[in-house]
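dumping the sequnces here before i forget
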Amino acid sequence: MKTAAWPREEAEAERLLVVDPSAEKMADFAVRDLPSLLRAGDLLVVNDAATLPASLEGHDTEGAPVEVRLVGPAEEGTWTAAVLGAGNWRWRTEDRPAPPALPVGSTLAFGSAHGDGAPALRATVVAVSEVSPRLVRLTFDRQGDDLWSAVYRRGRPVQYSYVRAPLALWHVQTAYATRPWAAEAPSAGRPLTWRVLLEARRRGIALAAVTHAAGLSSTGEPALDAALPLPERFDVPAETVAAVTRARAAQGRVIAVGTTVVRALEGAADAGGGLLRAGEGRTSLRVDGHFRPRVVDGVLTGVHQPGESHFDLLQAFAPEPLLRRALAHAEHEGYLAHEFGDSCLILPRSL
Amino acid sequence: MQIEGRSALITGGSQGLGAALGRALAREGARVVLVARGAEELTRVVDEIRAEGGDAHGFAADVGAKEDIHRIAGAASALAGPIDLLVHNASTLGPTPLRLLLDTECEDLGRVLDVNLLGPFRLTRALAGGMVLRGRGLVLQVTSDASVNGYPTWGAYGVSKAALDHLGRIWAAELEGTGVRVLTVDPGEMHTAMHATALPDADPATLADPAVVARRLVAIIRAAEAIPTGTRLEASTWTPPRWQPMAVGAAFPRGRG
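..and the predicted 3d for all of it:
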């Protein structure tokens, strides 16, 4: 499938493939049509996580280059991070050499991306994962305001080798990005403009949010990539639980904008013994064709291909043969894949 | 709006009105994030507020620089939680002594617009989407009487503030019904470094103390739900709407210090 190599100017004009598993039908639309495809009483749930400048370039004490990709805060002020070796964003992660061995106690220094002469940000490896030696926990040499200043000053968003030019922080935020929890963009929401969202609301479609720490998509290390997604932080606000209850009462459908929202809502319901409860948590829930969703009826997502964990997840919402037919159709019709690609809405009773 | 327990982001927070408003909001129980270019002055104000028991953070950045906007928005939300109150207080006069438009370089006008107009636009755009999602939020823009009067030599600044006033009206119209409100306030002439730069010969006795103006702004913020969104106010003449019990209370702020 062809790839979108750069954010497009008219997000609403991007294509939207609607797949109706109840009718076993599909049809082509544009993102701007989304409000007219939903009904009053339906609920759209978005992930309001902002994308972190998670990629920090630096070196170890021997001067060997490393790229650290922050996954998120862990216990006692530490951070979980994946470490990549030499190379830059133009290289596919799987083509990059391994980073130097970084046993517990190793130190890393991150200079400024802009050469501002400020002292480097330093980190110490305090734990190495059993999953992969490239998955570590770090403590930084500063906390609070100073740490966030250094991360935002020195970090930049995780880059993709297929993208035309380096991505800036504004390229990887949704229109409602709020809490900087995401290691990579929760990209399903990227084409949603406020015109589309407010038009949906005007039609009686409710809008609610969760925060989910969307994780890394790939590190290039097979053992680590096989373990993705790692357990991820989520927060389901009480307002969102109430909105789900209202949608249920109105016979509305709950539509997750992105697989991260599926993981947050179903992870929260799983933790609540089947009942969606408000609060923060961590989920390592695996969603696939054997999973019976308790909260989510449909998903707005990118165009995902077999072999991706996202494709497995979608099988909880549509049978694999229908998804493969949809994919063949998308490929034939020239849909674009990946972070800046076209969209797919899998929703029963939509066509 | 309620101030206690809410998150406020104030640009131009290291001196003058911005620093005074940061102190005043922290005393009212807000979590405050101050933004300014100079890290040292910023740290001093943040430390002062913390010494009083307030919850304050600093982030050194330039609101006139596009690449700093999402840094400000992201770091502020990380430090204080989703932002409920955004105060566009930072502004630049452009080159001083102030000069005729005939003597103003177009690059200088561009820089003034970057800081005073594009900066607030970009930062509102980065934060207001989240506010709409949460169904609440207040954007407070600090303007000047130079936005309505054509004062000679105040061209770059006056034009930027006139555009900012109108930006506020349009934001307000577009966000009507979302729970996100936009107000624009003229604080009046204050005894600040900026005023001294613009009008070095002014008699300080005729100028308001920024701390006093900051308390008026706090009262306006408290009463925001009773003020039509999109309104441009003058802090010196504004009085709380009497018929509003909450707003009457706001005339007597519960300062701790």
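The mean pLDDT of chain A is 95.
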